[in-house]
Design goal:
This protein has about 425 residues and is of the alpha+beta class. The two termini are about 40 Å apart.
């Protein structure tokens, strides 16, 4: 009898296994190029709705891959459509493009020296939140998946979004505007994935959470109106500064006494208070600006109601009035990871990073406008480690600061993760 010996690797060369192998090879080969893209974006950051140079580079790259490209979406957004060779769902992948009005203080050779005008003031511009890495990673994903076009069970929609950090007063932008302009239609998106680099999560690790992952946010304005008087005769006044101080203190009871903090956190912060111009004049009015953060729609509703009730009733008790606007200028929904989708895609994360490197994380009271996509279609938003191995997360420079720093060695894991999420979802739904 003649034995037929089959090489071991052929026993496991299923189409899905072969795809993962392709992703690994292609992503590893792109490691240096992704870093080059990231450093270029980092050195030349642009603020929200001004990402002209940035979007041109992205559009040119997508077009070179044979991807159908639309530009000028929500001012400077770029959308690429890659139609696979087989029928299946439409998977959207999103990266944000804008920098922040921050003067960079790092000593990397590609540090930003860009200056511009924001809200009437001269400011520095810096990618102090990692959006440069998000763009570079998604450009790498586009290159990998376009090289596997014939094998794709469906369509990939690459969303490069402006103005995640917000825009100047009077402008519109970000994910909300992209959704309004139809980014989730033509073709209609079935699912959306996104990631965010994190400077306080160790490189090589991925963090996730089902359900409420990042807080919904409402900004607020409270205007307290009283009666002006000479500072030497306060009994002739209804002092809006004293009333405002009482309102601020009373608002702190919402989190300590109304929120069930064993289930979800919440935040009530007054970040600005403006009133008066001299030491001996009690002003007529005071303006306060603040932010509310919550992890569920029910908590959001309660926060808004309690702030209005406390502000107006505290003012009334002192003979003053309080006008409350919530939201004042912006509102982001809760970044909510669809629990069923998260459970379905968890094996994809574990096979890509290794089960020991996939971490369940607590909710974050920061906000993300990725939530506007998740309001319309099931979505999953994860965090990619960018802190050097062995560093102390309590000492690592945080996001939105001049010293923000990212270890670039984690970018390849980001490319592999978004590729595998896309392929695994398509393979499950497209057959």
């Amino acid at each position: 009898m003649k034995l037929c010996i089959v090489p071991v690797f052929l026993l496991f060369t299923t189409p899905i296994f072969a795809q993962q192998t392709q992703v690994n090879i292609k992503a590893d080969a792109l490691k240096d190029q992704v870093i080059v893209w990231r450093r270029d974006f980092h050195e030349h950051p642009e603020l929200g709705n001004h990402e002209v140079r940035t979007s041109a580079i992205i559009a040119k790259h997508l077009q070179s891959l044979g991807i159908q490209v639309q530009t000028g979406v929500a001012t400077t957004g770029v959308v690429g459509i890659l139609k696979g060779g087989k029928p299946g769902p439409v998977v959207a992948l999103r990266a944000d493009m804008d920098g922040l009005p921050v003067i960079e203080r790092t000593d990397v050779p590609f540090a930003s020296k860009v200056k511009t005008t924001y809200n009437g003031q001269e400011v520095g511009v810096m990618h102090a939140c990692g959006h440069d890495s998000h763009m570079a990673i998604l450009m790498g994903v586009a290159q990998v998946l376009s090289g596997m076009k014939s094998e794709l069970h469906g369509t990939v929609k690459f969303i490069f979004q402006p103005a995640e950090e917000g825009v100047e007063p009077g402008q519109k932008g970000g994910a909300e505007e992209m959704v309004k302009q139809g980014v989730l239609e033509n073709p209609k998106v079935d699912v959306v994935f996104g990631l965010h680099i994190n400077s306080q999560t160790e490189v090589g690790k991925i963090a996730y959470r089902p359900g409420g992952t990042m807080a919904g946010v409402n900004d607020l304005q409270i205007i307290v109106k009283g009666r002006s008087a000479h500072g030497a005769y306060p009994w002739s006044s209804v002092d809006p500064i004293v009333v405002s101080a009482e309102i601020i203190n009373n608002l702190q009871t919402i989190v300590s006494r109304n929120i069930n903090i064993t289930e979800n956190p919440a935040v009530v912060t007054i970040g600005a208070i403006k009133g008066g111009n001299r030491s001996n004049i009690i002003p007529e009015s005071v303006e306060m600006l603040g932010t509310l953060r919550s992890l569920t729609p029910a908590d959001e509703k309660m926060l808004v109601e309690r702030v209005k009730q406390i502000a107006t009733k505290t003012a009334e008790a002192q003979g003053a009035t309080a006008e409350v606007k919530i939201p004042y200028s912006s509102h982001y929904p809760v970044t909510f990871n669809d629990p069923a989708l998260t459970q379905q895609m968890l094996p994809s994360l574990k096979k890509t990073a290794g089960a020991e490197n996939v971490l369940l994380r607590p909710p974050v009271t920061g906000a993300e406008d990725f939530s506007f996509y998740q309001e319309k279609v099931p979505g999953m938003f994860i965090f990619l480690g960018g802190m050097p191995k062995g560093a102390d997360p309590l000492k690592a420079p945080s996001h939105h600061t001049p010293d923000f720093y990212i270890d670039e060695s984690g970018f390849t894991l980001g490319v592999k993760t978004l590729c595998n999420l896309t392929l695994d979802y398509m393979n499950a739904k497209g057959k």
